[in-house]
Fold these 2 entries.
Entry 1:
Amino acid sequence: MICKKMVIFTTCCLVTFGLLAGPVMGGALSLDKWKPSFDPSGAKYKCIVSNVSHPVIKGVYAGFAIRDELWKKTNGQIFMDYKPFSMLGGEVEVLNQLQMGAIQGMSVSSVASTNMGPRFGLINLPFLINSFDKLDKFVNSGKLFDHFMMAMDHQGIMGFDITGYGNYGWATTTPVKTIEDAQKIKFRIAEAAVNQLLYKEWGFNPVVMPWPDVPIAFKQGVFEGLDHTPTVCNVTKKFEVAKYFTQLNYAQGLFIWIFNKAWFNKLPADLQKIFKETVHDICAKIRQETRAQEAEEIAKAQKAGIEFFKLSDEEMALLKKQGHVTHENYMEKINNLYPGDTYRPENYLKEVQDYMEYKP
């Protein structure tokens, strides 16, 4: 009974705040718009893959593209049953399902990923990999990116590749043009240690909250600012509440494509190869589409009356200086090595900082 009530409650929230793309039949989430064009019933191998967000976001839609390409390239042997919209629950809950093997894959947000893979917190560090160009550079770094993707290997979870959802800033109910303005705002931030450390150093007032709880809380005024990206805010209707957006571009939001290692290793070698190649090919294509989508969503939001601001260069420099403490405080967790790591640097974070030409 409790589970049934939770499903109905989540469905109602998604409908109310425009998070469903298809019709709702009998209170159930509908993926009709993204139904496969093939009959998956004959698949020899099946994997359930979760995501919390909306497939209108390119980085989320990638799951359907991977599903269709896998079906094609494996001649119908593998069916990836993709479940966006938090259909399987919140991210921390789903991570546990993945580790136990109850599901086989997940496109986990970078902010939630640190709960089981602290090294993934690297991407949340302020002003380190904070643009589309920098993200491309990091993805093409070879051993540095490969080491990053090993963050959950010790948990029995393999990391394959990444898609994104844009540059982080603040969607607010009142204009935030200065740090002084920001200090008057309660900001919702994700359940991630890096983010909590960062907001403490910035001297702001954070409210830590799971993503599925955000729509109602924002509308009810539990917080006045949302730490997120323009694409997500526009697609998921947050600009119906917040009429202003401050472009900080302090970090890139990622979806990290992870899979249960035991399940994957049971696939035949030829299908393992096709699976990895397919994920890599789709993710590379989607990352380029994500660039264009952010520009499009900002333009749409501006046309709808949303005002965009930037802090002064001096104030941005101050945020960067204060945020560097986060790099130092989280360095040990990011640098921690595990038995399965083949690359074993003395100071991984320092190597990434040097490669990205980061200067505090």
Entry 2:
Amino acid sequence: MFSLDWIYYAISWILLTWHSAWDAIGVSVDAVIGTNWAWILSIIFLVVTVRVILFPVFVKQIKSQRAMQALQPKVKELQEKHKGDRETLQKEMMELYRKEKANPLMGCLPMFLQIPVFLGLFHTLKRLNPDNQGKTLYGWTVEQFNSASNAKLFSAPISGKFGSTAAEMASLGANLTTVKIVAGVLVCIMIATTYLTSRQMILKTGWAEDPQQRMVQRLMLYGIPFSLLISGAIFPIGVIIYWVTNNLFTLGQQQWVLRKFPPLVPPKSGTAGKATAGKTAQPAKVGGLLGRKTAPPAVKAPAAAPKVAGPKPGAKPVNPKKSGGRPAKRQG
């Protein structure tokens, strides 16, 4: 059977390394405002560590998405050409992706690489209980394990969850109501930030024209945040801290990407589309937290020259020199 112990060892090592670093620079191990900041910061910087490691993969993901966007006109041509022949269509599309060096699976790779980290942290934090006998598993010392087991965020243990029982919280010396309030607020923040990251991604790439792909986008935008109402009840508070921090990091990283690699604007259908046929789609200027497109500045039209009325039909031409050059005659 495939063992995940190596993931648990890796997650534990990163957590313990950061905890030692915060302890070394003077972050209090004891609770301040009901919070053991050294352990909370260790979870937050676990996210930073993982995202820095995965940053090159993320850049490749964005470049692959841009390449896929640029290939959409050619993909549509192949779909029209091989309508009804799925086998030939798949071969032609794979050849197109190979020739243009575009990988459709690259868009999901960073998310899949983060799943083992999430599972490892979930398992590690679930073990944090003073009554647990296996305190030295995955490289922990007894002292480190006991310290983490008693670590709290605003008096709620990081191993506690919204669905915890009174008996479980009593063993950790915590009040169940406090745990539910802290966990509930964090779950709401987790749902909101998950929705914002999905919305930002869809605004970045645009809504898909294919009905099936559009359904997947709607599932990501609404389905996943809604599912967190249920799954959030079983997530330890430490895992929710990880999730929220990861979402905030993603929002900032995607905003940077929107400026560095702006999305392509597909040509409009109809008359405008015919006029722009054969031209390469231009990147759109995107700004704001949610990736909204900013309208280009209005260009003022040059001021029109004043119109001069022409002579009426049949009228004699007027010579300005002749009329204005002679002095008026004196009378008397």
